[in-house]
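REVIEWER CHECKLIST
Item 1: Sequence provided? yes
Item 2: Single chain? yes
Item 3: Sequence as submitted:
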Amino acid sequence: MTMTSFQWPDFYFARHGETDWNREQRYQGSMDIPLNRTGQLQANANGILLRQLLERDGLDPTSLQWFASPLGRASETMDRMRAAFDVDLPPVIHDKRLIEISFGTLEGRLHAEINRELALAPGERDASYWFFRPESGENYEDVSSRLLDFAQELTANAVVVAHGGVLRVLRHLVVGAGRAEVLNWPPPQGVIAQFTGQTMALHAAVNTWDAQEATAP
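Item 4: Structure as written out by the authors:
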């Protein structure tokens, strides 16, 4: 396990809501796939949950920075979450360093279609997969590098909306979870991960949708 010496500030993180490709278990990566109706409801519920968490923690939402991946599924999730607040919030900062890991030529293909020699689906990976780079794609070490760069701008108690692969890497960098563990962990949707010190707590929104935990990339 590898941990960075960087002192991460406390922050709130939400994975985008479900897309059809999540439900179908397709490699999505950097493709700009929109939320489906379930994903929209997840995002709406996450907004209410975030408002409650900030109230519980005594934090003024107008004092925070709001970061999102520029991909549409994350941007729409952020917009729907912010709609739960009845105050004027600071503008969203869309940061390309938060984009999902690119699967290159594998994007759009079903997990089940991929030859085991090319890629392994979650649940079948070992720590070496961290460095597996598909043709024209990225590996998780690449994502780690850009997140460490992004972290220099992350402010205390900021709100971040991004992707499952990003959340995997954050668990490794911030909490120190092992690579094999995070690579096989399915980051949930409809949940807010609260990073405090070197811990991560998951807070679930009320399930007002057909809750299916989509398998993350």
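Item 5: Key structural point noted by reviewer: The longest strand covers residues 191-196.
Item 6: Recommendation: ____
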